[in-house]
Design a protein that fits this description.
The complex is a heterodimer of chains A (116) and B (109). Chain A has strands at residues 4-7, 10-13, 19-25, 32-38, 45-51, 57-58, 67-73, 76-81, 90-97, 106-107, 111-115. With 116 residues, chain A is an all-beta fold. Chain A starts with a strand and ends with a strand. In chain A, 32% of the residues are buried. Chain B is mainly beta and 109 residues long.
Chain lengths: 116, 109
């Protein structure tokens, strides 16, 4: 149980375009979902936390207008990278957790974004 | 402030035992997670400790001392596939995960 899917797994886009990444909890209801990015050989960096039906909480330094997050249901959250630039190229990972202890985060497989 | 410390890199030999330490300072504490992450992949759950003591799960064991703000992950009978990064993460009073930078474990034949 506790499977999280992420789509697409890899995407290449041109500079200036927008890319949407989906994160789904397949067999549980995720009251909270998290979006991370990770540069090569670096640690996970939390970008934002989203609760179903409310606005996402962004970490300091993360532009909310550039990284649009929508958590429309208890099983789906989306991250849209708007007007992507080469420096946005990274590994984006979502995680989801239920609203009960131990509040373990279940991770999606990640999305490799390359902006050319 | 909130902080997690763990070694950046460790090297061990196939078949041996290795212990990866983690110290934490958080605003409140509700438990400690260990995750494994292979290069290019997302983290996968290894263990969760909320009470003091040792939790054993096959070749992997995790220890917690709440009074010392200290945990370790013990890997026995190391295999080449155990080469990965091991992430320590503590949950604060709001159950938010505070992540360490990860320990890259290199296994040599």
């Amino acid at each position: 149980g506790a499977v999280v899917s992420q789509h697409p797994s890899r995407v290449i886009c041109k500079s200036g375009t927008s890319v949407k990444i989906e994160c789904r909890s397949l067999d549980f209801q995720a009251t909270t979902m998290f979006w991370y990015r990770q540069f090569p050989k670096k640690s996970l960096m939390l970008m934002a936390t989203s609760n179903e039906g409310s606005k996402a909480t962004y970490e300091q330094g993360v532009e909310k207008d550039k990284f649009l997050i929508n958590h429309a249901s208890l099983t789906l959250s989306t991250l849209t990278v708007t007007s992507a630039h080469p420096e946005d190229s990274s590994f984006y990972i979502c995680s989801a957790r239920e609203g009960r202890e131990p509040y373990e985060q279940y991770f999606g497989p990640g999305t490799r974004l390359t902006v050319t | 402030g909130q902080n997690i410390d763990q070694p950046t890199e460790m090297t061990a030999t196939e078949g041996a035992i290795v212990q990866i330490n983690c110290t934490y300072q958080t605003s409140g504490f509700n438990g400690l997670f260990w995750y494994q992450q292979h290069a290019g992949e997302a983290p996968t759950f290894l263990s969760y400790n909320v009470l003091d003591g040792l939790e054993e799960k096959g070749r992997f064991s995790s220890f917690l001392s709440r009074s010392k703000g200290y945990s370790y992950l013990l890997l026995k009978e190391l295999q080449m596939k155990d080469s990965a990064s091991y992430l320590c993460a503590a949950t604060d009073s709001n159950y938010q995960l505070i992540w360490g930078a990860g320990t890259k474990l290199i296994i040599k034949p």
